[in-house]
Amino acid sequence: MKTQLKTLTPEECDKLLFHLLTPPGNKAPPRVHHRNFTMALLMLDAGLRVGELVQLRQDQLWFADAAVSALTIDKDQAKNKHERTISLSIRLDAAITIMQRQWWNNQFHLKPLYAFYSRTCHRPISTRQVRRIIASASALSIGREIHPHLLRHTFATRLMDKTSMRVVQELLGHQNLSSTQIYTHPNSVDRQKAIGALNQKE
Question: Whole-angstrom Cα distance, residue 34 to residue 102?
Fold first, then answer.
């Protein structure tokens, strides 16, 4: 029997994102908060793995003076060497536009240009640092530490309510459909909706 995947509720997602963007008492520059917020959003709204996130280049998110409408994960960035393209949400478009202004502006003559970094765009932020950022923010905002991969799980679970399993498979970059089927199991929200439906008049 497969272990039931845990996901974040919409309310928990909102609390986590709000905390990342405006952490109380944190004296880091606002642009650092926005970087952390955008990284979480790419996992939550585009289903990126943390290993894919840290390898992103600026030109994958910002091209021809605008945020891209769809993000392509290259084969050499993907865990299973399977290229995939994900359309970006409206709030990701807005977040990327601010990233360009705060982090990427006037750096296009330099290469490589990692999208997320600490001091220099030649060296990406580490997966360990991303895990620390998400764990700390989640502990303070929703009362428990989470791993960044839970954001990807939440993305996939939300998609299962809105589209076919084949589409979810493509967006997650799964080679085998069996890897995607784990998201078809009902969760607590599904069970609550089912019982709630009994109270509705036909």
Answer: 9
The one catalytic residue among 34, 152, 153, 158:
152
pLDDT tens-place string over residues 14-28: 999 999 999 998 889
CATH number (domain holding residue 133): 1.10.443.10
Q: What is the reported pTM?
A: 0.80
Catalytic residue among 15, 19, 35, 49: 49
Is 75 considered catalytic here? no
Identify whether 34 is a catalytic site residue: no
Number of folded domains that form the chain? 1
> Residue 122 falls within a domain, yes or no?
yes
Catalytic (active site) residue 201: no
Cis peptide before 124 (omega within 30 of 0): no
Q: Is 19 a catalytic residue?
A: no
